[in-house]
Amino acid sequence: MSNTKVSDGGTALGLRRxxxxxxxxxxxxxxxxxxxxxxxxxxxxxxxxxGFGTPFxxxxxxxxxxxxxxxxxxxxxxxxxxxxxxxFVTRGLGPRxxxxxxxxxxxxxxxxxxxxxxxxxxxxxxxxxxxxxxNIPWVYIGLVPAAIMIFLAFHGIxxxxxxxxxxxxxxxxxxxxxxxxxxxxxxxxxxxxxxLLPTASPHGFKGxxxxxxxxxxxxxxFEGAAMLGEExxxxxxxxxxxxxxxxxxxxxxxxxxxxxxxxxxxxGTANQLNGSSTPWNTLASRYAPWMTWPVIVASVSSMFxxxxxxxxxxxxxxxxxxxxxxxxxxxxxxHQRHRTPSTAVIFEGVFAIIATVLLGIFxxxxxxxxxxxxxxxYFGFVLTIALLPVYVLTNVACIRYFWxxxxxxxxxxxxxxxxxxxxxxxxxxxxxxxQTSAPYTWMPWVVVAWVVIVTIVAVWLxxxxxxxxxxxxxxxxxxxxxxxxxxTGERGQLLAATAIATSPTDDR
Length: 508
Known about the structure:
Blueprint: E1 5-6, E2 12-13, H1 22-33, H2 35-41, H3 43-50, H4 54-78, H5 85-93, H6 95-110, H7 112-132, H8 138-155, H9 157-184, H10 204-215, H11 235-265, H12 267-270, H13 279-287, H14 292-323, H15 342-362, H16 369-403, H17 410-434, H18 443-464, H19 466-470, H20 487-498
Antiparallel strand pairs: 1-2
Helix pairs in contact: 1-9, 1-11, 1-14, 2-14, 3-10, 4-10, 4-11, 4-16, 4-17, 5-6, 5-16, 6-14, 6-16, 6-18, 7-8, 7-14, 7-15, 7-16, 8-9, 8-14, 8-15, 9-11, 9-14, 10-17, 14-15, 15-16, 16-17, 16-18
């Protein structure tokens, strides 16, 4: 099997090879994390538990996420593919598990665009009403970035990532500048390192643990670069490095800016924050009124960057699974000029808009901003519950994949993945326990029902189309199909992965 598609003219088409380098791959992951929107809107969900110690919670969470990332980075080096987690789990645990992983990834990544459509629409509706006295329904506002997202994905990965880079630079520049202004003006009661200590939590160790359950959500999406496995230069080296550097870069931004936030608000105010608070608006009005609009711009820029990069991710997963005949074949169509999965782009764009509108109707209406906010909240929780098991499966797949080879290292391929998988199980359980009101209480069952359906389809495929499952996950970034499944073939793949930095001209 090949990873290319033959056009009517007989030309072999596939995703554009060597289209982007390491910096662009870093941006792919970093923009999905959304440093500005995560900094502006997420810490106040941890603050009711960790309070003034929330920066410490983010620091510890960042360190913990490196364990989660370890298995992903190892599998990215061994099996680079546009399929990302689908390919990793397929090669480690088998095609049926890979198919189920693909189903979970569809929920996780396909819903990222709708939640940002809802959030951008609701946020700007309120902003326009406050600033200009104009009330534009959130759904109309949200359709504008949705249309631009589809255009960028259709036009090509280079265009999308260049746009994401501009947006990322803008949002990071603004949020860091705002933090620096707060620090330069001495904060509420002087500069202190207390927020970086565990003793700053008003509810002790339990507050830190519960706060971390919410803080970890700010790191969901760090793996985005894995879906560039067939378009990035030297994927065996650059994809793992991109995941690592994105996690380190954005994690450092979180810790610094949230520390500045706590210093700027002061302990009393910080300990009173809750999910409906807007602390960065407070900081702007208190320390730099001229930063009000830049903060608004950074918020929207961050939301849109998440849309663009996450959309590119799910489109490539759909492309790979359809290329391997696990989804309808038309989704594997490659546009002859732009070398993008154009049918998958259109499908995902239409799905995102329809999903946003339908949930918006039932969750508050299309003209009331609460409808857009609920699209963000409801879909956001569902996609989180779907994505966390994928992290677990990938780390388990890493253990099994390397265990069968002579390159197995107990700390890299057992200890770190076990820690990462355990942390994600704890986070999944914590998320479910902490949500005590409807409709959040029954959303995990929606995901369970989806897993059951996808599992039934996987079993059916195994019985009716075993030849399809036999080659699932075999196509790597090299463009080759490893269908032999022999130990020698696996060893060759892995030995190549260990030599990622030996040749400056290696474009694997």
